[in-house]
Design brief:
Layout lengths: L2 E3 L3 E7 L3 E4 L2 E4 L3 E6 L47 E3 L2 E3 L2 H14 L7 E6 L6 E5 L2 H14 L8 E5 L4 H9 L12 E3 L6 E5 L1 H4 L2 H10 L5 E5 L15
Parallel strand pairs: 1-11, 2-8, 9-10, 12-13
Antiparallel strand pairs: 2-5, 3-4, 6-7, 8-9, 11-12
Helix pairs in contact: 1-2
Length: 242
């Protein structure tokens, strides 16, 4: 079975050996501190604009032009992470980051799917790193998110550049789901806007030939291949909810 993970939001949570499903994305939470898939968002003045990720601008400021490195951040899921906040004893994302992310996600998977790549909530705490393929359209996306939810603070969004939109990578990933190859494909995801991410066996992850076959199938879109685990089928009969 191939897992197709669709939503590319990230948040920091304290793992409790459980899996979360939120906004259409399955997030497997491992023991310790981990990075999981998510959605979220914030509150602020109506006149706020997108801020600079290097030196956050004051409310009402316009995001600076791309600097030397505006590449979409990559979070290591194995690295220890501290929760942004603790609510009733449980680690959580900041309410501001959650709210803005929810509003951004609605636009990113809607009218702005042509440029939306991914987002990282509370990067840093209280802010949302938004990765898009076009900064001008990205600013319009944040404005549209604020227009749809005036309580979502656009000044908490930091724009970064990705090479591919999430929609583009998932379309390329769909071509791999039924691909007949030497090694199994355990999961396919949209990654961080830079490549289709595929998990397979350790041997498959080390095979240059397998990687080349995958990239040929995607039409030249890069594929990042890593070792993973096959999907575990659900046990027991499926019953309808009462």
């Amino acid at each position: 079975m191939v897992r197709r993970t669709g939503r590319g939001h990230l948040r920091v949570v304290k793992a409790k050996a459980r899996a979360q499903v939120r906004g259409g994305a399955a997030a497997a939470v491992a023991a310790g501190m981990a990075v999981a898939l998510l959605t979220g968002c914030g509150k602020g003045p109506a006149a706020s604009a997108v801020a600079d990720p290097v030196a956050p601008a004051a409310p009402g400021a316009v995001a600076a032009s791309p600097g030397a490195d505006r590449t979409c951040p990559v979070i290591d899921p194995t690295a220890p992470q501290s929760p942004p906040v603790v609510i009733d004893g449980s680690p959580a994302n900041t309410p501001e980051g959650e709210r803005l992310s929810q509003a951004i996600g609605a636009q990113g998977y809607g009218a702005f799917a042509d440029v939306y790549a991914t987002q990282i909530v509370d990067h840093p705490a209280g802010r949302v790193a938004l990765c898009v393929t076009d900064l001008a359209r990205g600013r319009l996306l944040v404005e549209a998110a604020h227009a749809a939810d005036p309580e979502a603070d656009p000044a908490r969004a930091d724009l970064y550049l990705s090479k591919y939109a999430h929609r583009t990578l998932m379309a390329a990933g769909d071509k791999l789901v039924d691909l007949k190859a030497k090694f199994p494909i355990y999961s396919v995801s949209g990654g961080h806007g830079a490549a289709v991410e595929v998990t397979t066996t350790a041997e498959g992850a080390a095979s240059a030939e397998f990687k080349a076959q995958l990239e040929k199938a995607t039409g030249g879109i890069p594929v990042a291949v890593t070792k993973g685990e096959p999907a575990t089928p659900l046990e027991g009969p499926m019953t309808a909810a009462p």
